[in-house]
Amino acid sequence: MVMKRLGFRDKGFEENEEKIVEEDKFHSLFVEEEPSLEEIWETFNVFDENKDGFIDGLELGRVLCSLRFLKEGLDVERCKKMINCFDRNKDGLLDFIDFLEFMQISLR
Ligand SMILES: [Ca+2]
Ligand SMILES: [Ca+2]
């Protein structure tokens, strides 16, 4: 991983390395609970009510309300702020990778 960052290049090696790093990364996300990617994907789909592949503030708010994480009712502004914390490309939506980060923090 470090070697890769430093620009270590060998085509075949690099592809393998990439895969291992990816799996390691996912693995280290869930040392405690270790939900599978499938489980997270299912969770993602629960959040993504309109099935467009992204979670917006409203969708996040609905689920958090139903889970009673938001006690004062649907607070879209607060949800948008939460999304902004994990939104890498700043489009105001959580895609699956953003959601992985979100889960990682939430499960702690
Ligand atoms: Ca959606
Ligand atoms: Ca995004």
Describe this structure in words.
With 108 residues, the protein is an all-alpha fold. It has two domains: 1-31, no CATH class; 33-106, EF-hand (Recoverin, domain 1, Orthogonal Bundle). 61% of the residues lie in helices and 0% in strands. The chain is built from six helices and no strands. The structure holds calcium ion (CA) (2 copies). One calcium ion (CA) binds at residues 87-89, 91, 93-95, 98. One calcium ion binds next to loops.
Summarize the structure.
The protein is mainly alpha-helical.
Order of helices and strands: HHHHHH
Secondary-structure class: mainly alpha
- How confident is the prediction overall: mean pLDDT? 78
Q: Helical amount among residues, as a percent range?
A: 55-70%
> What is the CATH class name of the largest domain?
Mainly Alpha
What ligands can be seen in this structure? calcium ion
Separation, N- and C-terminal Cα atoms: 25 Å
The profile of the biggest β sheet is:
none
The Rg value, from CA coordinates, equals 17 Å
What features would you highlight for this structure?
6 helices, Recoverin, domain 1, 2 domains, single chain, mainly alpha, globular, 108 residues
